[in-house]
Amino acid sequence: MGEVIVITSGKGGVGKTTTTANIGTGLAASGLKVVLVDTDIGLRNLDVVLGLENRIVYDIVDVTHGNCRLKQALIKDKRFEGLHLLPAAQTKDKTSVTPDQIRELCAQLKKEFDYVIIDCPAGIEQGFKNAIAGAEKAIVVTTPEVSAVRDADRIIGLLEAAELHNPKLIVNRLRPLMVKRGDMMSIDDIIDILAIDLLGVVPEDEMIVITTNKGEPAVLDNNSRAGQAYRNVARRITGEDVPLMDLEAETGLMYKLKKLIGFK
Amino acid sequence: MLDFLLRVFGKDNSSSKNVAKERLRLVLVHDRADMSPQLIEDLKEDLIKVISNYMEIDENALEVNLDSSNNTVALVANIPVLRMKRTSNRKEKIG
Ligand SMILES: Nc1ncnc2c1ncn2[C@@H]1O[C@H](COP(=O)(O)OP(=O)(O)O)[C@@H](O)[C@H]1O
Ligand SMILES: [Mg+2]
Fold it and tell me: Which of A47, A195, A264, B22 has its CA 20 to 30 A from that of A214?
């Protein structure tokens, strides 16, 4: 029996979809069976981040409304045998799916897959309630900014109220140099405020934009720092004890020099 | 220049990170002040237990609220007292 994990944040644009795609691909790359479920109805995104947008026939609403069988709506990834996507509906109303339907859907999916990872929409309304309905674990994504951390705090309260205990935190888009000069909250600052366990720290990385442009998650790129961070997160999810990577060392002057002269 | 030195030695409380932390702290006190009804009920129950050691109160008229205004949040309790006790029951209760 697999595990259902929801990736949520409250605030939009902090990296939920990026995180879902990268964690899912990372897990599938190590041979696990993974299905990614896009619950952002009306704002379908996960398909393009994964480069699977041309293969969609049916979507999550087709499944819950019985227009097709669940198997028919699952899109196979082009790189990994074990990776599948259940896309969000793009044109339908978001009230067309209920928490009960998602709960039932997750129950079915986890019979087939090792991990069912749910990409949650922004906000705390119906879309959020749908996304968390079938989940057993939650990952909260935030960035080191006041508004994102505040929304994460709210989400943590709502998860607790929904009996989704012990959510784990991913801090995305961290800029070590800004932290160093006191212009960005550090990991410790954020943990101190939110008081939940840290699952990973993903640095700000241009490679996210570049890989997303191509529809190939950064987790597959060995030169991407964010990709490395996501590989670590995927390993932690499977229970491995992986230390946080040293973000500072490699953004410093020496690293830049080394990179310039081609040592790195 | 002084500003720069302070920053280098990490003594500058006005660095934007510290401003962010302080603003977050305040905003979260307000956000979290939106306590769940269950939590308020639990708090009331505990308050009644403690206060009953010293005075007889009208439990049904007891009101507890978190009042947030300006930059502070205050716990405001309105507890009608029916009778004062001469000595506290505290020791008996603990024992
Ligand atoms: N670590 C990162 N470094 C650089 N850009 C990032 C990073 N994480 C996310 N982004 C960019 O931020 C934007 C929002 O990310 P997305 O995953 O769509 O957020 P959400 O799903 O929470 O709305 C995207 O354009 C994405 O490429
Ligand atoms: Mg998204």
Answer: A264
Q: What is the ipTM of this complex?
A: 0.79
Ligand with the closest atom to the CA of A12: 1
| Residue in A45, A8, A36, A13 with CA at minimum distance from that of residue A132 | A8
Instruction: With cut-offs at 50, 70 and 90, classify the pLDDT of residue B32.
Output: confident
In sequence order, what DSSP letters do the residues of A34-73 get, joined into one string?
EEEEE--TTS--HHHHTT-GGG----HHHHHTTSS-HHHH
Task: Identify whether the C-beta of residue A124 lies closer than 8 Å to the C-beta of residue A1.
Answer: no
A186 chain-B contacts, CB cut-off 8 A: 17
**pLDDT tens digits for range A17-72:** 999 999 999 999 999 999 999 999 999 999 999 999 999 999 999 999 999 999 99
- How many other β-carbons are positioned within 10 Å of the β-carbon of residue B60? 6
Min distance B67 CA to chain A CA atoms (Å): 19
Q: With a cut of 70, which residues of chain A have pLDDT below it? A: 94, 248-264
Q: Which domains does chain A have, with CATH numbers?
A: 3-260 (3.40.50.300)
* pLDDT, tens digit, 9 for 90 and up, residues B57-94: 998 888 888 777 766 778 888 999 999 888 877 765 55
Do B10 and A180 form a contact (C-beta atoms < 8 A)?
A: no
User: What single DSSP character describes residue A139?
Assistant: E
Integer angstrom CA distances of residue A75 from A15, A54, A86, A231: 22, 10, 6, 23
Q: Is residue B94 part of a domain?
A: no
Strands (E), B4-91: 55-57, 63-69, 72-78, 81-84
Angular region, B82: left φ>0, alpha ψ -120 to 50, beta rest: alpha
Looking at the structure of chain B, the number of domains it has is 1
B80 belongs to a structural domain? yes
Mutate to test the pocket of ligand 1, among A17, A18, A206 (most ligand atoms within 8 A of CB): A18
Q: Is the pLDDT of residue B95 over 50?
A: no
Residue B5 above 60 pLDDT?
Answer: no
Q: What is the pTM of this model?
A: 0.83
User: A139-158 burial string, b = 16+ CB within 10 Å, else e?
Assistant: bbbbbbbbebbbbbbbbbeb
